[in-house]
Design a protein that fits this description.
62% helix; Gp46; mainly alpha
């Protein structure tokens, strides 16, 4: 059988509270008891409107930039056309020839650089050097200078590697004579034991 629990008396606390205080507190703000209202949280429609406004602004800027670039290209083409119109027939042919010649030279230079770069990379592979040196060696331009630089780099690289290997493999030389230079005698051990004895 379980003993019954006695619950404390339930009181209506509202009964004891005053609805109108006898001394109302002095209001320092002059009747403005309301806390400042928080700005309303933006709803999804407001957020969507702001996002679409930002996207539209970015699109307008991109369109404006594109229009400016297009106008610049048109102006450049008109300028070239005016220059060609002012030229005589022979001058136009010479200008076109020079333009084509320059394009051909640029293509030839690019092809030569690619070929030279591939030769440099193959030389570096032969010498077991990193390919990261290729772009720096390409700036030398001449085959003879590049080959001399590769052999110099190889010699310096090998010397540095060998020096590092020697340094890592270096050991201390063992001392001459018996490894135990101190002899342990019975009296020496007895003195040490007495010195380190906990209970005296």
């Amino acid at each position: 059988m379980k003993p019954e629990k006695k619950w404390p008396l339930r009181l209506n606390i509202q009964h004891f509270g005053n609805t109108d205080p006898a001394d109302p507190p002095a209001d320092p703000k002059g009747g403005q008891n309301e806390p400042p209202a928080d700005p309303p949280a933006p709803n999804q429609a407001e957020i969507d409107r702001q996002i679409s406004k930002a996207v539209q602004s970015a699109l307008d800027k991109a369109q404006k930039r594109f229009e400016e670039e297009k106008q610049q290209a048109i102006a450049d083409a008109k300028k070239d056309a005016e220059e060609y119109a002012k030229m005589s027939e022979k001058e136009r042919k010479d200008a076109e020839f020079q333009k084509r010649l320059k394009e051909i030279e640029d293509r030839e230079r690019a092809l030569n650089e690619k070929q030279l770069l591939s030769e440099i990379e193959s030389d570096l592979k032969e010498q077991a050097l990193p390919l990261s040196f290729a772009s720096a060696l390409l700036r030398l331009g001449e085959n003879e200078a590049i080959k001399e630089a590769i052999t110099g780099i190889k010699a310096d690289f090998d010397a540095a590697v060998n020096e590092r290997v020697k340094e890592e493999l270096r050991q201390e030389t063992p001392g001459a004579g018996n490894a135990r230079s101190q002899t342990y005698t019975r009296t020496g051990m007895a003195e040490k034991a007495a010195k380190h004895r906990l209970i005296k």
